[in-house]
UniProtKB/TrEMBL annotation:
Alphabetical list of InterPro entries matching this protein: Ala_racemase_N (IPR001608), PLP-binding_barrel (IPR029066), PyrdxlP_homeostasis (IPR011078)
N6-(pyridoxal phosphate)lysine: residues carrying this PTM: K36
Alanine racemase N-terminal domain mapped to chain residues: 7-226
Protein name: Pyridoxal phosphate homeostasis protein
GO-annotated molecular function: pyridoxal phosphate binding
Organism, as annotated: Erwinia billingiae (strain Eb661)
Stored Pfam families: Ala_racemase_N (PF01168)
Length: 235
């Protein structure tokens, strides 16, 4: 077994264990394999091990992999900060965008989504606990932005995403994740297509699952540590 195969199996087991601990069905939780900075061969190894959903942070790097692999059975998620001048590449190549945090980006994605593709699945990014981050909106601004996005026909609002500030203590991770889950459950009531809470990375996955995450984004635990000097010089 290659190490990516082995790592994937371990991560899946960790998801199942975390789900079992809080009485959830592990099938409710999608594993997004975050392949940023990793070569196509690493993605191919993960595909061979049964992985289908991949997350990329850098637009051009992601598009290069999507086109090179040309595999329509895969699902590609854009999870990085998105500048307006890169929105077209996301609209034309990805299946999901997790980082919508302003109407301007949503409007561009809607206009640029090709007519022959299904609508782009989008998540609104919430800045739930990170004072230093410029990404994501405050929870107070959610209902307004959700209302506007729901009117855009080439987008489907599927839910919420957050990157909580690193926090060592489980109980504090859980408290932040529960705030996200509360907002997610409220949003679901207003928008029937909402079914996705993208929350949980390698270090806070257990708390995220206990709170109700439906999608965890895992990179290092699957592909190993990243070398930022080599890749993505062209965001
Ligand atoms: C890089 C990244 C991840 C994966 O992080 P790891 O610590 O490698 O598991 C998840 N989500 C986002 C938004 C990321 O940028």
């Amino acid at each position: 077994m290659t190490s990516i195969q082995h790592n994937l199996q371990q991560v899946r087991e960790r998801i199942s264990a975390a789900a079992a601990k809080c009485g959830r069905d592990p099938a409710e939780i999608t594993l997004l394999a975050v392949s940023k900075t990793k070569p196509q061969s690493a993605v191919e190894e993960a595909i061979a091990a049964g992985q289908r959903c991949f997350g990329e942070n850098y637009v051009q790097e992601g598009v290069d992999k999507i086109l090179a692999l040309g595999n329509s059975a895969l699902e590609w998620h854009f999870i990085g900060p998105l500048q307006s001048n890169k929105s077209r590449l996301v609209a034309e190549n990805f299946d999901w965008c997790h980082t919508v945090d302003r109407l301007k980006i949503a409007t561009r994605l809607n206009e640029q989504r090709p007519a022959d593709l299904p609508s782009l699945n989008v998540l609104i990014q919430i800045n739930i606990s990170d004072e230093n981050s410029k990404s994501g909106i405050m929870l107070e601004a959610l209902s307004e932005l959700a209302k506007e996005i729901a009117l855009l026909p080439r987008l489907t609002l599927r839910g919420l995403m957050a990157i909580p500030a690193p926090e060592a203590e489980y109980s504090r991770q859980l408290a932040v994740c529960q705030q996200m889950a509360e907002a997610f459950n409220a949003l679901k009531k207003d928008y029937p297509a909402v079914d996705t809470l993208s929350l949980g990375m390698s270090d806070d996955m257990d708390a995220a699952i206990a709170a109700g995450s439906t999608m965890v984004r895992i990179g290092t635990a699957i592909f190993g540590a990243r070398d930022y000097s080599a890749a993505h010089n062209n965001n």
